[in-house]
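Appendix C. Worked example: glucan endo-1,3-beta-D-glucosidase
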Amino acid sequence: MALLLLLLLMHFLVLPLSVSAAGGGDAYIGVNIGTDVSEMPSPKEIVALLKAQGIQHVRLYDADQSLLLALANTGIRVAVSVPNDQLLGIGQSNATAAKWVSRNVIAHVPATNITSIAVGSEILTTLPNAAPLIVSALTFIHSALVAANLDQQIKVSTPHSSSIILDSFPPSQAFFNRTWNPVMVPLLKFLQSTGSYLMLNVYPYYDYQQSNGVIPLDYALFRPLPPNKEAVDPNTLLHYTNVFDAVVDAAYFAMSDLNFTNIPIVVTESGWPSKGDSSSEPDATVDNANTYNSNLIRHVLNNTGTPKHPGIAVSTYIYELYNEDLRTGPTSEKYWGLFYANGEPVYTLHLTGAGTIFANDTTNQTFCVTKSNADAKMLQAALDWACGPGKVDCSPLLQGQPCYEPDNVVSHATYAFNAYYQKMAKSPGTCDFKGVASITTTDPSHGSCIFPGSFGKKGSKINGTLLAPSNSTSSGCLSQYHYNGGSFTSSVILVALLLNVFVM
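Step 2, the predicted output written as structure tokens:
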């Protein structure tokens, strides 16, 4: 939003000519910039990161003056927002709306490339008492843009939670919560008359979490599915290979239910958390976040569209740029970011064919790591095998060497497993070790410990095959490795036994 997932090729449905991509042209990926960060980077640092990563579309949750100034003359397209706490004043006063536009938009364009205004956020579900003011707020903001001759370049809309869509699967049966029809009908009329788009927040993570096992994880993560595992809408016979497309199409059908068929959709928020509570949020992991966002980016930028509207771009903003450590609620609330506040990536996106966006893409990097639930004795045995019969050079794990710390079997086994996997040119079956290892796209390197197969801090790839031990008697010999945690053993008998046990 593909080389790692199946493309949707649903050409048998006639595409309505009146529907086009929001803003015209190809789809784009943007990033939300949240500010609930204890050590928030300066506007200058934020813009530097955006430039370095090739990010050309951002959405702000307000209209921060210093950040708008920092974004000037960068060409980056900016969506600004009217915070929920300002909706009341703007929705009740044309003059207040005009003043807001003057200060937060007119004062910055054209130097800052503001392209849209999001008025409030998820008002129907988070601030329902203010719902009757949404359309008037949109109208007043738009009127101020018309007066400034900016209405053609700056669109006005309001983001909605996908939870306002009821009976969302099959998508063809979806409709908006009819309690809100008195708001939705005039809202859609406004979007239609101004050439704007429906802003929708789509979170397959929450759909998966709340499905009680009904939604498969692979379906939520855009992973390829065999045809018999695809979800089929019995009314249209359209096949769905991921939750994201199903939710977007449900929104299209819900608009059709109200007789609106020509309003495009922009997804203003979507993402996956990289960490969560170990008991209640076990699928909030770095690997799943990497998988979801990498696949989402690729899906959007391929202009695949959805089964209902194939080829119609669904531009999307990822939630979000930084991890926000000040957010409250479940553990996962703090871990939706692509980057830490210091600009380091939380994980390395895996983006074949994504163009220039996200410069931290290191395509086709995979690593072999220990499984989180692996048995310690099995890890120990596999580690001994890798550093012995497996002929892995485990010298970086010696005390005083770069990968000695942390001094435990999990960390040391991860290094050894990956070294073997890279030495074997990532051949199928070389990352298993009797079920205690798995493949990941997340680089496990840390500090000065650069893992085989990593591009490292300076961007130079470390070739795992160069780390293969020599034929000397010391290289790869278990007897030279000892450490307090007991990860290595000098038992020749154990090595001999393991030689017959482990078949990679």
